[in-house]
Fold:
Amino acid sequence: MRKLLVYLKSYKKECILAPLFKLLEASFELIVPLVMASIIDSGIGLNDRPHIFRMGAVLVLLAVIGLTCAISAQYFAAKAAVGFATKLRYSLFSHIEELSFNELDTIGTSTLITRMTSDINQVQSGVNMVLRLFLRSPFIVFGAMIMAFTVNVTGAIVFVVTIPLLSLVVFSVMFFSIPLFRKVQSGLDAVLGHTRENLGGARVIRAFNKEAAETEEFNESNDFLTRMQMVVGRISTLMNPLTYIIINAATLAVIWIGGKEVYFGVITRGEVVALVNYMSQILVELVKLANLIILINKAIACGNRIGEILEVHPSVCTPAVGGNKSASSAETPVMKDGMPVPTVEFSHVCMTYQGSAEEALTDINLVVEKGQTVGIIGGTGSGKSSVVNLIPRFYDVSAGSVRVDGKDVREYDLTELRERVGVVMQKAVLFQGTIADNLRWGKPDATEEELWRAIEVAQATDVVKGKAKASGDGKSDSDGLDYWIEQGGRNLSGGQKQRLTIARAIVKDPDILILDDSASALDFATDARLRAALRTLQKDKTIFIVSQRTSSIQFADKILVMDDGEAVGLGTHEELLESCEVYREIYESQFKKEDREVQHA
Structure:
């Protein structure tokens, strides 16, 4: 948590002024009982109405000054807390954006979202309350005790005994409740996680008629949370009765002692009332302090969780030496020993995912020349996506090397490397905005002509032209490029999203285009037209097509067959039918015998 305080450096003035104004407010509040004593003794006791009005005006003045100080303190505290949270949230988001897929996979999306939202909000509240109350409450408690000694030493002895007893009760309740609060937070996380899982998988739950089972599982988590909250509630409720018993007993003692002192003429009735008021102030501030400490503990716990994320360093980053962007392109060799350098080369590549005991890829060797199309096929979990994810360096190899234009990808500046590679992910992801906005992600200055060319190649012309831009007058835009896409592309079908993501990658005009099973939602006819269009687009582009359909890759220059993380075949379609049993089994499972005979004919 201490490391996060660096984000308060820009708000040093606010961090000083907020407590200062709170202390001023507290100082004026401590004067109020003395003014009340003067009103009782000199005003009411002597029937001096002008004195009562004068002291009443003083009370109003103290109230106005106190209110002004309180508002000023709240303003500076809020400004510092909100500014702190803004800087922290920006820093955390920027840090998350720098994390590689390894860290994102390990930490988890839901955890990062929780850190970005509720944890930062909790820390913000903690900073706000600390600036407002952390000095004020102790100041009031000890200030009231000191002021009591100025009124009457005998009566003030009650304060000396009462304050430790009250502190003992308050901090004992805190001691037992804070660990339970942490368990409550864990239980709340479980309930929220279960709710998120159910909302995300609502269709699957209904398809398998598992509503009752999921409801029962949710009830178990919810009942645990309820029980923990009730235990914490019972302990916390002890604070009010115990503190009020002590404070009322102390008040009785003050009145009893004060009454005797008044009888003997040592103090006045107004001074007894002042002592009672100081006792009440102490009670209120101790309860506030207890709640503040609980809030601080929650904020510290949340701050530590945020700090844990900030301390995670990305495993994939731009090299400090030899990887600067300006030099990388110029240093990339075009020819070596009189021969063109392969566009992509895998040399004895092995890869292991973080936290996994087994290799995901083992001894992969592949040479791809400029302008070639490479198909990658294999069963589910065979490592197809893992192979292509190494090219833009989403993950790093654990052994061997991946080279692009003769240069190890680990030597490239990440931005420069990824500008040369266009990737269509396995899961089609679109962002909120117009179709044109989404297509221009890789090339912000792309013209409409370039957009339509990419749309045509991706076989998405009917998708775009079939969409209308929602306009204020109810009219529609015939070209459809201004059609508004909702978050995650919720208003598009799976096939429409895939075609638009392919178009987005084509607009970028990359040297290397990777299609990672990006046509799985397309019918065979559309898939065939897409492959034909990609061949016309190809020219000097190197294309990788990951697919489970042999029809999608059979015309590729090379086909890499994966099985359990190993390359079990490499060659053309015809060569693999003869030499690779895995490829032949996949092909025969997808085509009937008569279809194969027609194709060969």
Observations:
- Residues 322-330, 469-478 have pLDDT under 50 and may be disordered.
- Residues 106 and 354 are 7 Å apart (CA to CA).
- The chain has 22 helices and 14 strands.
